[in-house]
Amino acid sequence: MLGRLNHVAIAVPDLGIAAARYAETLGATVSEAVDLPEHGVQVVFVDLGNAKVELLGVLGEGSPIEAFLARHPAGGMHHVCYEVADLAAARDRLVRSGARVLGSGEQKIGAHGKPVLFLHPAEMFGTLVELEEV
User: Fold this and answer.
1) Residue of 83, 130, 132, 133 with catalytic role
2) Active-site residue 106, yes or no?
């Protein structure tokens, strides 16, 4: 079921500063910022060749990143994203095993334009996990 690591997401208090630090200080290739209103975030991707780092900024009131930054003002790791071939089959298998899928359990479209779901951190040893269909 589980495929490769797609990205590690880091919530940041200022997306512009974070993107510049990765680009200028680390010499990374950094994408343009993309607004994802359905998720309440603005994202930038840092290309690592074999995976990505997703920098997450607040987009609008009620953003989940706003709540995260209230607890971690300097930012920090928000989630990891793994690829799966069939998201519906993965969800059904997880639910049968007793895992909690966040939200309604229905997939949403993520930052890469592909279907995604999130698993409750309590299911994955304190780490929020995103599954993305590829």
Assistant:
1) 130
2) no
